[in-house]
């Protein structure tokens, strides 16, 4: 096939069906990119899975993706700066924290994208307000429903009645999962699911309690329906969870156990499209070095093991992991060998279909805004990419505004 054979010629007449069978690799990649670009409007594979991982507390981006070649980094952080010879170098400017060997391995495999300097206009340094902004995708004003909840509402409008369409592994439901119609069950752990509905008599009693609450206000009815949806999800989960036993060893930390349970869900619940997990401890105002190292190492090893397990069960190309934190930290360390609330920070996107690498410029430590890194990529650009290109939703309808995509797939 000649190099002069155009993309239009290739796509014309249904020839795209043969992609990957006899076409050269360069042409297969071009055609695959076109498929993704044309996949808006719900034509994306219906079994793609999005895992959202939240770093709660505000992760220090500068000691995660380290600008080791910038003298300003050492000037601003005499105690916390990581020595150049310890950094896991990516290029001549930046590298990963030395505790992130597992993540670096995924990056080297081309399966991890690092989007630098992510934030939003007029950044807020309050944990609660900034997390609310990230979870609702509305920096302008408080929003009742979360960005994932609104995506799920779109799926319900298409006719989905799946009680396990999305699941949260948390004691409370993140605002991100709240929808007008969608009711997303959240559990502290999969063991809780088995404990609650493993006994059929307990499940029957719980359903009877909900059914006995006839009448009442609209709010009561919505709570009852949410509880019944959760029970339906728990019953379905309970039937499936015993069908799979992982052969992979995860750490005992929050990340290790979180990703272990996510892998279990993906292996046994093919109808689940979104799984949400979070881990705290990133609010490192004092003596940051050791706890931050442990957190990054726990995450790094967990996500590497998770992707290995996805490879083993044939799901790596069906899973994308998105990692965010409500803000980064100040560029300068404080007097307590820690860092205070900041603004822009990196995001991660990981998966078998992800086009790995660095996206965006290296951190600019000269042109700061109130001591913080200036944001260059709006986080809603990343969300829009995932909604449109990975989940088959409509981000423009969801956000009431069009955002450019980041070319991570």
Descriptive report:
With 409 residues, the chain is of the alpha/beta class. It folds into two domains: 38 residues, no CATH class; 357 residues, Alkaline Phosphatase, subunit A. 37% of the residues lie in helices and 13% in strands. It contains 13 helices and twelve strands. Strands 1, 5, 6, 7, 8, 9, 10, 11 and 12 form a nine-stranded mixed β-sheet that branches. The chain has a three-stranded antiparallel β-sheet with strand order 2-4-3, with no helix packed on it. Helix 4 crosses helix 11, helix 7 packs across helix 9 and helix 8 packs antiparallel against helix 9. The protein is globular and about 55 Å long. It starts with 6 loop residues before the first helix and ends in a 10-residue tail after the last helix. The N terminus is likely disordered.
Short description:
The chain is an alpha/beta fold and 409 residues long. The protein is 37% helix and 13% strand.
> Tell me, what's the shape?
globular
- Detail the poorly predicted runs: 1-42, 212-220
Distance between the termini: 26 Å
- The tally of beta strands, per DSSP, is 12
Topology:
Elements: H1 7-11, H2 25-37, E1 49-55, E2 65-66, H3 71-76, E3 88-89, E4 95-96, H4 101-108, E5 112-119, H5 127-136, H6 147-157, E6 166-169, E7 186-187, H7 190-197, H8 200-211, H9 218-241, H10 254-268, E8 274-279, H11 289-312, E9 319-325, E10 345-351, E11 357-359, E12 377-378, H12 379-390, H13 395-399
Parallel strand pairs: 1-8, 1-9, 5-11, 5-12, 6-7, 6-8
Antiparallel strand pairs: 2-4, 3-4, 5-10, 9-10
What are its keywords?
alpha/beta; Alkaline Phosphatase, subunit A; 2 domains; nine-stranded mixed β-sheet; 13% strand; globular
């Amino acid at each position: 096939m000649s190099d002069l054979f155009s993309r239009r010629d290739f796509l014309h007449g249904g020839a795209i069906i043969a992609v990957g069978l006899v076409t050269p690799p360069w042409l297969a990649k071009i055609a695959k990119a076109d498929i993704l670009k044309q996949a808006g409007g719900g034509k994306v594979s219906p079994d793609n899975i999005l895992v959202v991982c939240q770093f709660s507390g505000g992760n220090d981006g500068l000691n995660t993706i380290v600008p080791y070649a910038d003298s300003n980094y050492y000037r601003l952080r005499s105690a916390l700066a990581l020595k150049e010879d310890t950094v896991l170098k990516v290029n001549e400017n930046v590298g990963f924290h030395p505790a992130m060997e597992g993540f670096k391995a995924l990056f080297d495999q081309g399966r991890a994208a690092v989007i630098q300097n992510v934030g939003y206009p007029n950044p807020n340094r309050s944990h609660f307000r900034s997390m609310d902004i990230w979870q609702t995708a509305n920096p302008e004003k408080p929003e009742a429903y979360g960005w994932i909840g609104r995506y799920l509402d779109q799926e319900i409008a298409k006719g989905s009645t799946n009680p396990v369409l999305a699941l949260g592994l948390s004691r409370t439901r993140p605002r991100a999962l709240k929808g007008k119609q969608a009711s997303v069950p959240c559990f502290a752990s999969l063991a809780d699911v088995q404990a609650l509905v493993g006994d059929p008599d307990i499940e029957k009693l719980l359903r009877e309690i909900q059914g006995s609450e006839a009448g009442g206000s609209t709010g009561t009815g919505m709570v009852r329906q949410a509880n019944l949806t959760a029970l339906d999800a728990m019953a379905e989960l309970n039937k499936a969870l015993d069908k799979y036993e992982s052969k992979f060893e995860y750490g005992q930390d929050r990340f290790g156990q979180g990703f272990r349970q996510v892998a279990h869900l993906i292996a046994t619940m093919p109808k689940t499209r979104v799984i949400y997990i979070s881990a705290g401890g990133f609010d490192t105002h004092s003596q940051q070095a050791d706890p931050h190292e442990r957190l990054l190492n726990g995450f790094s090893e967990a996500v590497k093991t998770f992707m290995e397990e996805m490879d083993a069960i044939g799901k790596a190309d069906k899973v994308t992991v998105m990692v965010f934190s409500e803000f980064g930290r100040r560029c300068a360390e404080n007097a307590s060998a820690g860092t205070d609330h900041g603004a822009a920070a990196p995001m991660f996107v990981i998966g078998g279909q992800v086009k790995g690498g660095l996206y965006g410029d290296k951190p600019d430590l000269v042109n700061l805004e109130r001591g913080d890194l200036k944001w260059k990529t709006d986080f809603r650009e990343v969300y829009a990419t995932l909604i449109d290109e990975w989940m088959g939703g409509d981000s423009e309808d969801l956000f009431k505004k069009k955002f450019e995509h980041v070319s991570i797939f």
